[in-house]
Specification:
three-stranded antiparallel sheet; mainly beta
């Protein structure tokens, strides 16, 4: 029987997934916006073996349903879903255009928290 992560991998199209690479024995992903004229990127390393990274820009915009006047159409650029065996984590990664800054931010789920990546991660 398939577990939840296997089912997610089957459900999500390959063009919506971001490749996870291996470097120095650690799994990592580099995230960036193709529309970013400055070419800013953030590298996230130490991903667990059971992780999937989704490029949310591959999904249709919600403006066909919502009016988008109060921020309801803002959405994550990337979604990282991971299962460490001890807990499941969903990280929503937002580009700086939502925060008025120059660095990508990462929010955990819908708690409303965000953090800037430290210099060790790019």
């Amino acid at each position: 029987m398939l577990d939840e992560m296997d089912i997610l991998h089957e459900m999500i199209r390959e063009n919506a997934k971001v490749s996870i690479e291996e470097s120095n024995g650690r799994r990592q992903v580099t995230l960036g916006e193709p529309r970013d004229s400055e070419g800013r990127k953030v590298k996230i390393s130490g991903l667990p073996d059971d992780a999937i990274v989704i490029n949310a820009d591959e999904f249709p915009a919600p403006d066909a349903v919502f009016t988008c006047r109060k921020g309801e159409c803002k959405r994550a650029d990337f979604i990282i879903i991971a299962d460490t065996g001890k807990k499941r984590v969903i990280l929503c990664c937002y580009g700086s255009r939502y925060f008025g800054g120059s660095v990508p931010h990462t929010g955990r789920g819908n708690r409303g928290t965000s953090r800037q990546p430290d210099s060790a991660h790019g």
